[in-house]
Batch of 2 targets.
Target 1
Amino acid sequence: MSTRIRLGVLCGLLAAGCVRIDGGAVEVSWVVRSTDGRAITDCSCANPAISKVRIDLVGMNGDIDQTQPCAGRTSCEFPCQRQT
């Protein structure tokens, strides 16, 4: 392997390291299922009815670093019927 290729690979590996993220986006799709595995397509027909889904994101270190960007935020709640 030539020195130029090795240098390129090394630079690529260094560039792919962990970085601090201050913002971003998460896209989630969901299907609510009954206890027997059937998809519930009408959340108002569930017993009890389901009005919304709340996303709960937790950082890699869980409770240690207290990274929970959705804690107490209504912007992380979505109508159940939306499914995304």
Note: The chain has one helix and two strands.
Target 2
Amino acid sequence: MTPELGGESAPAAAGGPLVILAAGGAVPFEVASAATAAGRQVLVIALEGAADERLRAFPQATVKWGQIGKVEALIERHGGREICLIGAVDRRPDFANIGVDLGALRYLPRIVKGMIGGDDTVLGNLVKGLEERGFRVVGAHEVAPMLVAAEGRVAGPDMGASERGDALLAMTAARAVGALDVGQAAVAVGMRVIALEAAEGTDAMLERVAALRANGRAKWSGRAGVLAKRSKPQQDLRVDMPAIGPKTVEAVMRAGLAGIAIEPGRVMIAERVETVALASRTGTFIVAYGDLPAPVAG
């Protein structure tokens, strides 16, 4: 099977003015670039201290957590009714660093409720609030469909029978923790689940895997085992689609794993060209399969 590049040249979805509420990582920049290439008028509203510096190339404003009134005023001035919320948030804010403005006061009960709930509660409340104000929330994959992995091999070598078994087990484990709104990833080596993602995130989980191998709690020779990443069954992909990127490949290598299995159509590949090149150069497979067949015995 030849590597599936997922249509890197595919055009972004057409539409009118677009507002991008951007947190960290490369994906907001890629979404803004795709929207601009499609002729959309883009406004980036960047979260202070988190957004990629490259977003300065686009019309941009910066806000702090809680400045909802400022966000609404910027959106109204821009004229866009479609909003894309995208990017990684390393930590939830505390009340000491929230710049609450008058616009945020009417949302305060919802904000407090969201901060004590799980990720799906937080994001669900945010989307509901925006929709009640007459905005339409769109996903990054709707604006830039080339970001999403299509089914098949993406990069690197084919999986062997042992990797297929580990991928199936890790995918099953990732779905279980996702259903609990805990995480989106799991690692299996030698048909044994050795790590589940929780609040620390995928990269920190992979650091934990590397530490387990270094201290002898988990043992294997060479590179073996699989990181599986998939969406939560109940996840709203418009605001929280999982992603992998070059840093994921690097972390997989440091952990001594053979490769990465992702869910097709529901996981993005950030910085796709760099990710594919790094995986291919280092012999790290990336494969997108929804339901992997069990390995054939013998």
Note: Residues 148-288 form a domain with the Cytidine Deaminase; domain 2 fold (CATH 3.40.140.80).
